[in-house]
């Protein structure tokens, strides 16, 4: 090997939530791990993409892994130890620092970065986890059905690094290792003929992929903080897609995801609400009536007077959904161009809000809106990375379809039960508008399980899916793509790699042989992974 080459038991490419969970699980079981990340922050959709955790209503009691719960507890602990909370906030057992309506734990992304770094720290100190920062995969080698190495290239300059590993976990946001390793995969919308899904089209649409978004944070203070007019503002100001019923995208009006009726949202910065009264439960209230409150990540009234000049509002709204083109299986140049265009859309939304948006008092424009690049850890004020809702997906041993989780299909019998369950999850089937021109699909699901077979490619023997690249369809990706599910998927993959290293078994034999499966599942349960839902969980 050259000085830049590395050898490890487990290579985890992508340090989002799934990747970190995989690395922790494998290292805790004694495996050596190389973990890689492209962006300045680890944590993926929770941090560099800036998205507060989308979770189910029972998250405070059950339905997540013990390690995921430790992450949530750690975030709250930082606020209690380091932030000047009011007495009421400090005593709030289920503290929601942003008092946002989208999640029971809306918070600033940097806090999660610190907690995740803390979770990794002992393993890094012991040499069990080595983190390669600011690199992305560019090539891979295989020997038959086995991946033998992955080569990573610095995005800030430097020599390539090739990592050879017994097991590789693809925890990237878009399934980047699948084409590089020759692992069979699918993109976009499968056909009804292939999946049997009632909501699928007659013919496959591989280029029909959910919108991506580039999030940002604003506050509202005295003064005029209007940004320069974005280069693409005139285009985005006039854009009125069919999926919006002909309404302009830059608007307070958008389709209700569940009914598709056009609805006008309100926007009132720093409304003086009671943050302690927020009950973030989307099964009761979608929470997007006042967009300022929907994804608020810092509520100033939970803190001592004067600490925050303004609430902090995370903008991840329908108006910044980018669906002019996807970034799967396009050239690097095209990928960068489309993400740059998505960044222009986000800046255009901000400029529209600052200059033209209708105000409750009858005026127009909120020039007091100010970007907070320090909160996002990025000079331009936007998130470091695009929020990818949909990835390449492996051709898996088990493919989860609409018929397995949709309440309209399953009814009160509940989701499909899997003998090889490695975890649980729950979210509505929530698909945003897509590059094929489709509008929302947002329908009830039932509490579901994660089958081990969905993490295993049909052919490749030592590559495990550890993110949104598991064996879902375009439709079921809509409920398996959220934070706690991604973490659970990654954690199961890391445990599996370590289990196979320790026993000499293969992932496919563990999945297919009941005796081996029972051993592996017992290890998951001992580590705090829940394999089944309690009876009180229900559809919403």
TrEMBL record:
What Enzyme Commission number(s) does the record list for this chain?
A: 1.-.-.-
**GO MF:** oxidoreductase activity
Top enzyme class, one word, equals: oxidoreductase
Phosphoprotein among keywords: no
Recorded coiled-coil stretches: none
Under SUPFAM superfamilies, the record lists:
FAD/NAD(P)-binding domain
The record's annotation in InterPro entries points to: FAD/NAD-bd_sf, NadB
Q: In the UniProt record, does the keyword tRNA-binding occur?
A: no
Keywords (alphabetical) are: Oxidoreductase
Task: Give the source's domain of life in one word.
Answer: Bacteria
Name under which the protein is recorded: FAD-dependent oxidoreductase
Lineage summary: Bacteria, Bacillati, Actinomycetota, Actinomycetes, Micrococcales
């Amino acid at each position: 090997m050259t000085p830049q080459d590395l050898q490890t038991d487990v290579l985890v490419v992508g340090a989002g939530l799934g990747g970190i969970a995989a690395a922790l699980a494998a290292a805790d079981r004694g495996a050596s791990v190389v973990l890689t990340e492209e962006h300045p922050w680890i944590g993926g959709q929770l941090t560099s993409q800036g998205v507060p955790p989308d979770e189910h209503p029972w998250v405070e009691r059950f339905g997540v892994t013990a390690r995921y719960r430790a992450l949530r507890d750690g975030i709250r602990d930082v606020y209690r130890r380091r932030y000047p909370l009011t007495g009421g906030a400090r005593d709030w057992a289920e503290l929601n620092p942003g008092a946002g309506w989208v999640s029971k734990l809306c918070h600033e992304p940097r806090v999660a970065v610190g907690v995740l770094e803390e979770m990794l720290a002992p393993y890094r100190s012991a040499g069990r986890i080595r983190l390669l920062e600011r690199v992305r995969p560019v090539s891979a080698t295989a020997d038959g059905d086995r991946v033998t190495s992955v080569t990573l290239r610095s995005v800030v300059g430097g020599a390539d690094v090739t990592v050879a590993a017994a097991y590789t976990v693809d925890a990237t946001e878009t399934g980047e290792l699948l084409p590089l390793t020759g692992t069979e995969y699918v993109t976009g919308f499968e056909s009804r003929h292939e999946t049997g899904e009632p909501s699928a089209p007659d013919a496959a649409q591989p280029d029909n992929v959910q919108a991506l978004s580039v999030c940002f944070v604003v506050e509202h203070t005295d003064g005029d903080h209007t940004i320069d007019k974005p280069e693409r503002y005139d285009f985005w100001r006039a854009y009125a897609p069919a999926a919006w019923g002909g309404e302009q995208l830059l608007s307070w009006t958008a389709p209700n995801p569940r009914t598709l009726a056009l609805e006008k949202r309100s926007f009132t910065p720093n409304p003086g609400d009671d943050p302690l009264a927020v009950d973030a439960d989307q099964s009761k209230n979608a929470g997007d009536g006042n967009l300022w409150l929907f994804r608020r990540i810092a509520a100033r009234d939970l803190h001592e007077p004067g600490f925050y000049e303004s609430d902090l509002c995370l903008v991840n709204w329908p108006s910044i959904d980018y669906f002019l083109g996807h970034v799967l299986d396009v050239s690097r140049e095209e990928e960068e161009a489309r993400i740059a265009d998505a960044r222009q859309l986000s800046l255009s939304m901000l400029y529209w809000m600052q200059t033209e948006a209708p105000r409750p008092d009858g005026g127009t424009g909120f020039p007091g809106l100010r970007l907070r690049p320090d909160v996002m850890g990025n000079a331009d004020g936007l998130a470091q990375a695009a929020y990818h809702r949909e990835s390449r997906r492996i051709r898996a041993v088990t493919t989860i379809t609409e018929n397995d989780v949709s309440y309209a299909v399953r009814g009160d019998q509940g989701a499909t039960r899997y003998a090889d369950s490695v975890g649980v999850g729950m979210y509505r089937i929530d698909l945003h508008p897509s590059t094929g021109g489709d509008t929302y699909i947002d329908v009830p699901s039932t509490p579901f399980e994660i089958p081990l077979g969905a993490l295993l490619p049909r052919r490749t023997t030592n590559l495990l899916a550890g993110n949104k690249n598991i064996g879902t369809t375009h439709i079921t990706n809509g409920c398996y793509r959220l934070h706690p599910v991604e973490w659970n998927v990654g954690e199961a993959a890391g445990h599996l790699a370590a289990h196979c290293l320790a026993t000499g078994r293969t992932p496919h034999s563990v999945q297919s042989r009941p005796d081996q499966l029972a051993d592996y599942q017992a290890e998951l349960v001992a580590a705090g992974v829940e394999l089944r839902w309690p009876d009180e969980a229900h559809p919403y």
